[in-house]
Amino acid sequence: MYKTTTYTSILYLCARNTDMKGHTIGELEELVLLGVGSLYEQAYALTILEAIKENTQRMLDVTAIHAVLRRLETKGFVSSSMGGATQERGGRRKRYFRLTQDGIHVLDEIMNVRSALYNKIPRMIFSAN
Amino acid sequence: MKSPPRWANRFLEWFCNPDLLEDLQGDLYELYEQDIRNHKSWIAKFLFVWYVFRSLRYSVVQRNYRYKKSVFGMTTNNFKIAFRVLRHDKFNTGLNLVGLTIGITCFLLVGIYVGKELSFDRFHSQKEKIYRVWLKEVYAEDKIFFNSVTPLIFENILEENFDEFETVVQFDKINYLVGRGEERTDEPIGILSPEFFEVFDFEIISGNRDRPFHDRNSIIISDSYATKYFGQEMAIGGIITIQIGENLRDFNVSAIMKDIRSTSSIRFDMAISNENFLEIYGEGAMNAWFSVSPETYVLVKQHASIETVVKQIPEMVMSYLKDRVEPGVYNIGFQPLTDIHLNRDIPLGIAPVGNKDSVYILGIISVLVLAIACINYTTLSIGQSMKRSKEVGIRKVMGAYRSSLIKQYISESLLISLLATLGGVILAKLSVPLFNEITGANIILDFEPWHAVLYLGLALLIGFAAGIYPAFVLSRLNVTSILKGLNRANKNYFRKGMIVFQFVVTVFLISSTLIMQKQLDFIHSKDLGFNYQTTVSVPLYPDPSAQRLIEFIGTAMEKGEILKEKLSQYPSIKNIGMGSHVFGTAGWGNLAYTDDTETFRRFRLLAADAYYFQTFDIKMLSGRIFDPESSLDKRESIIINQVAAEYFGLNEPLGKRLPGNKFGEHSIIGVTENFNYSSLHNEVEPLVITQNINILYSGISDHDYGDSPVPKLVFQYTGIQLTEVKDILEAEWEATFPEEDLNFSFVEENMRSMYANEERLNRLVFIATIISILIASLGLLGLTVLVINTRVKEIGIRKVIGASDMSIFYLLAKSFSLQLVLGIVLSIPVTYWLMRRWLNDFAFKIDMGYDMFLLGGGISVIIALLVISFHAIKAANVNPVESLRSE
Questions:
Q1: What does residue B822 show for φ and ψ, rounded to 5 degrees?
Q2: Chains A, B: CB contacts under 8 A, how many?
Q3: How many Cβ atoms from other residues are within 10 Å of residue B785's Cβ?
Q4: Is residue B96 one of the residues assigned to a domain?
Q5: Taken in order B56, B58, B61, B66, is the CA torsion positive or negative?
């Protein structure tokens, strides 16, 4: 009996741990995550790329977006499903992404942290500039 | 519309994980379609290829089955499995890991020492082109003068006569008093040709490398001596005073050199230019052909060869010396620089020469210890083949190829050896100070990035060597017989042979250590014919104005008398004597002359006073020792040793003279028993003891000294506190000779240092022995556990039927006894052969009686039994109910 409890508690700790680790995401990951969210039903690698290019004027190529998307998926912040086939793209299907609950949670948290800190900046700094 | 390049597309399909392919490929197509609308078609194609290559990432390739089946994928998988297997069997893994780690540590430490000895003088970039000159004068069979130090004139002669030489330089080392006033110390000073640094790669830190000496008053000092003499101050331009002959001369520091590394035969911390040779050696020596002092080095030109020079040498010699020597008498030869440190066929020059044999012995031993550790792994793994046969069977049924099984098992041994190498390197690094302290070997273990490759190579080598055989054995097992449960216990001769080999090496090391220890004990305890317990030797200083040897000895003895008077008031100081040489140093004065029957003779010379005999308790065979009161004795009495009496053919030596016309008036008043005044490597040589060296010097033709003949004061200290003698000496010395440095030593320590090389070898072998015993014991332990585990049921049944604990133990011990006995027997010839070689270095040696081998064998049997019983007793005591109940 005793053994079982310890075992489950260890498992629980492990689960908590991976969860904690997943919380940290990089800047590009954040951007891509935002892109996925903002494009809603239309989010696949190329549209995300377009969205980021448009909003940040950054030079990125599509393979970087793919890599980030795969990473986000293993972290559990996005989920993907294959769309229908079209004549374009040599008949290849698109992989659409959407935010998971965890993904939304992470974005919320990041925004909270940012705005909380942002609001603490004294007003005079802005007026001085 | 043009489609994207086919080959790039195919490449993408080849490497991409199939799950990811479709959308990735689709995205790339879509991009391509955009690009071809906006750009020229070649740009679009180029971009497509670019994106394909950019997509080649680990996350894309990772789950591709092609990758999984490839070398990389399988290796990862193999290591993962190997890790699990090793973790599963913690006991065996532990044994293997500990054994290999210790083995590698030992291999590294001893290997570094061997490497250091072999790498002497190899750091010079022109080492292949540098030779040291030797001179061999052969007058008759037993009248040969063979030296690696040469006449001064060689530098000019060789440079003038041979175009093949780029440069010829000389190197000499002489002790001088350095400093002024109260802080004079005796320092060895190098004397170099100005072009010295063109030949050798010693690094000049500051100063002009091309012209390190400004003039004959310049001095080069090492970095550490710059700190020693000038501290933080600027050393360049500083002044160092050296007493050369009668003159106190001021030298200007003109260059600072990086400290010479420990693997250099040429060593000095201060050096002056050889333009001072004239002042040091005098006019006559500058052009002399028959007196030697400095080493001469030649640098051969890039495309010239030394052989052409060697051919021309006889002709060159005769062109100078045809009036003075016969052809073939005066021979000049060349020894490669890299040969100097370990070649004992050519006499030593200024630096001591190492022992090639012991370096090789150590090299072999370090490899053997490593081999024992590898064998542990091999035998234990083979032993486990029973346990793992089911695994092999299942794998084969599932379709594993034999080659993939081999790879799997090799992965296990590689993993072990990688871990062990890592541990070994760390352990070696940590134990370097301890190793140096125990052995006095003075090695350094630095880590440089490229060493990682070396260690990795070592790990791979060990892993393959240890794992290849078990891998083949395990993968060879037949599927059907395994799965049917037909486990024929095959007689594995290979494995048994390995164990025998382990025993051979271990027993060999044990007996060798014992024999070496016995020899060293013998040396230290041998009655040398004199007493040297608690005897102190204090070097005296001659008067600065002394010029000739006789004056050196005379003035130093006079000073000694003053000190002697002061010391004699202490009750704890007894038997104060003086002599030109003291026991524990090699190279006592060696004189040579041709006697009246034209026989060439050599003998050793000791200038000593009457009390010297009491200090060392030298026993007389006949006659008497010097009478301290007798002025006749002081003038013309001599004492010889027994060997000298035989050598000179004097049956009734008392009252007689030495055979030779030119000696001064003298007579023999006593004959001593033979005592070993040199080390026990040599036989006792003829010795003449006198108080007045003039009577002998008038009749000799040659002399050389390996040890300074300046007299030493010797006395016995009977106090209890050895440290007290230091206080007494320091106080009295300070009061008597405030300008000189006090340097005293215990004769016993000096005696020991004569055998430092042997002592070091013995300690190194001892360490190797302990380690190999440890490793072999681990292996044996693992094997017993294995054997017992496979025989648990058998033991249980035997006990049920009525076998006693003792008979069970006997049964288990028996399984290794044949191999152990075979190991002991086979080790005897190896040990005997190697140890006889080693003992041949000593003129006085022990008998390698059978007792040493019996003892060595006995020790190994006891250790083996202890190791076996560690587990066997437990197994024998197990209640048969326990072992038979299960199932």
A1: -60, -40
A2: 57
A3: 20
A4: yes
A5: positive
Give the residue from B1, B13, B15, B22 with the most A CB atoms within 10 Å of its CB, the best one to mutate: B22
Q: How far, in Å, CA of B130 to CA of B124, rounded? A: 9
> Which of B27, B46, B47, B59 is the best mutation test for A, with the most CBs of A within 10 A?
B27
The domain boundary, picked from B672, B687, B718, lies at B718
Range of the domain at B431: 70-120+354-490
Instruction: Please report, for residues B155, B170, B334, the alpha-carbon distance to residue B149 in angstroms, rounded to integers and kept in the order given.
Output: 12, 10, 12
Contacts of A70 in chain B (CB under 8 A): 20, 59-60
Which tens digits make up the pLDDT trace of B431-488?
Answer: 999 888 887 778 888 888 888 898 999 999 999 988 888 888 888 877 777 776 655 5
Cross-chain Cβ contact A61/B51 below 8 Å = yes
The ipTM, to two decimals, is 0.77
Beta bridge partners of A98: A79
Walk me through the domains of chain A, giving residue ranges and CATH numbers. Answer: 25-84+92-128 (1.10.10.10)
- The total number of residues shown for chain A amounts to 129
**Tokens coding B112:** 């570094």
**Could you tell me which chain A residue has the CA closest to the CA of B56?**
A63
User: Is B28:B45 a contact under the CB 8 Å cutoff?
Assistant: no
Which of B425, B458, B490 is the endpoint of a domain?
Answer: B490
The model carries a pTM of: 0.72
Contact B629, B663 (CB under 8 A): no
d(CA B824, CA B860): 8
Among B22, B27, B60, beta carbon nearest to A45: B27
The token duo for B559 is: 């000073």
Q: How many helices (H) and strands (E) does chain B have?
A: 30, 22
Q: Is B214 exposed, middle or buried (0-12, 13-18, 19+ CB in 10 A)?
A: middle
B607-650 pLDDT, tens per residue? 888 888 888 888 888 888 888 888 888 888 899 998 888 888 88
**3-class secondary structure, B3:** coil
